[in-house]
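Instructor's aside before we start: the two examples that follow are unrelated to each other. I chose them only because their records fit on one page, so don't look for a connection. First example below.
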Amino acid sequence: MPKLREFYRAIGSSENEGSDGTLTSFTIGTLRLALYPVELLGAEAAPNAPVFAAGASLIGGPTEREWGGCSGYFSDPEGNRWEIAWAPWLTEFE
């Protein structure tokens, strides 16, 4: 995580409040990028799901989360895992 935090700061991304050595998030324009160690994804990121037409693999479909939003997971063709999240209280980034 320290190398990822350093990288995204170095390319001009704004690290969001609450980031630490375990997880972090950045605001990049109108995008919010959250980074978590794969071992923390646990049951949310179940392996061996079907492959999308573009080459991504579904890891975990959209699920309502305890923090009040909804998120799901996929991996790109190289195996990098992504979480897509919707937080209803975020209409624009601060």
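Example two begins here.
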Amino acid sequence: MDGAEPLDPRLHPVRDDLAAAYLRGRVSAKRFEEATPFQVTAPVLDLRATPGRIGGLASQLLAGERFDVYESDPDTGLAWGQNRTDGYVGYVSRAGLDPVAEAPTHRVNHRATHCYPAPNMKTTPLELLPRAAQVAVSAQDAGFALVGEGTWVPLQHLTPLAQMPVDPVEEALAYLGTPYLWGGRSAFGLDCSALAQLAYGAVGVALLRDSDQQAGQGVSVARGDLGRGDLVFWKGHVGLMVDGHTLLHANAHHMSVAAEPLVEAEARIAAAGDGAITGCRRVA
């Protein structure tokens, strides 16, 4: 409203013409809509801040995540809404969403897993699911799990959601070598803040999507007290400490997820003109 501090559009579904009903009284908009919940069915679903591709990739959704839709445009095939996992707002392809069905029971525990039309590895795969995608297992046969109508996944590539990992660094190390992708959020390609978010999300700690948002979470820790799992921030960048000296981060220098001595990364980033470390945080 007039005089109020504007809300972060990354985390609040608000446009001049439309806003989420829960924001009524906090923002001005021509109309307000209640959310219609959907479930992501595409293995990875791109999310953009604007309807076109010019603005670039803002984030991605993974199979099994919930997405609250406030507008669906049949002419463009796009849906505008908010990811329930991290609150991120944007436009996605409506074709990658279905009405909410069964709640997920398992998560993919490998870099990726093939989906088959039968419980037989010699059949031609239908698609590839990335690590951390969630599925609902309804049956098992010959070492495979039925995760959708006519879709089978190797059982050894799935872990029950109730069996949550305990070490975010171990989870992050599973992405070592993954290609760097600005806005990416999957084992097919990710950025620095997505690596931190996915690693901590696997152990039940919710991090926001972007590094500037994550930099306000947890508690500050001194540079000399850095330990396993601590987050180190630069302006527009974040990495996880494997131990007191080694940084694991998705970065454009390596164009992948890489581990290297923190002092080497710090010197290179400073030499490139991207500034010094802005803070260190402990979030769990």
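The mean pLDDT is 96.
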